[in-house]
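Whether sequence alone determines local backbone shape is best considered at the level of individual chains. When preparing material for the folding task, we compiled for one chain both its residues and its backbone structure tokens. The sequence in question and its structure tokens are set out directly beneath this paragraph.
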Amino acid sequence: MTQPLVITIDGPAGAGKSTVAQSLAARLGLTYIDSGATYRAAALKVLEAGIDPLDELAVARVIASTEVRITTGDGAPHVLVDGQDVTARLRTPEVTLAAAQVSRLPEVRSKLIEMQRAFAQGRGVVMEGRDIGTVVFPQAQLKIFLKADMEERARRRLKQDSHDSRVASIEKTAYEIGRRDQLDSERKISPLKPAADAVEIDSTNLLADQVVEQILALAEKRSLGDPRRVS
């Protein structure tokens, strides 16, 4: 039996992972999964429960009894926590900070990695994040590591967060991204790094569609057959 196609897209903030992964999944008829949404969902549940995001035992107890689902019924991803759609509440500064904190807790990370793997059971997926090719799906048929130079990444993030008045300049945004890169790369559990067999693509001077075309070409070159027929 043909195994469902799993494509992983890892990389730092601002490299274009989300845009590329969503477009690629749509082109292939696969399910798009943002692994970061699981950490944000967990962080939201923890904050609403009034728990310190650094209290590993308390956080773990909450996560153990929390159901997180990602649906794409209308073509757009929706994150449900215990049956409630919380998609619109996952991008606040408070949730972003708490997500970074809970993602460093070993027991929590183990639970959420298990959850992320369950999303791909019996179906093809394009999953993006920071440790998908190295930890979540080390046997994925195709692994991509997206990167871009710091100035371009900061410009993209600044544009994405233009509604946030606290984001004042490319310099400030670059500093924030650089700090997150350092934290993600130096953490002991699931550090941000390319998988040994990942294909690195520099998206600095590329449009998202150009990156998608490169990935489709790689899928065909690697004898995965016609990727549009793998599910």
